[in-house]
Model the fold of this input.
Amino acid sequence: MQTSDPRKLSLARAKGSADWYERVYLYGPLVLLRVLRGRIGDQAFREGLQLVVERHGGGTFDTAQLRDAFEEASGSDLEDMFRFWVEAGRLPKLAGRYRLVAEGPDRIWLRGQLNSDVAAGTIEVPLRVVSVEGSRDILVALRDGRGSFQAGPFASMDVSVLLDPDHLLIARGREMKLGEDAPGAP
Done:
């Protein structure tokens, strides 16, 4: 591999590269686990890992057994997430719009919507909201190809949104625009 830092690798750019195998088979599971942890939270994630170790020790396990452990630990149905991340054969095209809404002095809200041409099930898309106060990462659930989000309040209108900033999703395209035709409150 060209880099030992998995955060600098991109599955989307892996095809045709000399280190394709390493990116897909070594980095891919790291991406799945990172997204899974963001969805179910740190505590449930640790409990899920503990269940996998207790049940399978140093042995092998399949995707269904992994999913079962994390579903039990989190109390969540993770079928859609695993279907997208593990079994999906189609790459989504992601697009979003957002706007800034002033609700008084130093109270600016960001409101927006994401769309995907994958209209079945649920996928979670990472966003990074950047402002003069710093940045924060959020996950937006796209259900049947649509999801809305809100963040704030912010002290100024100097706010931007990065769609999938770490390229965790394998996507055909990513587009995020600031626009007046963006949705109101989600």
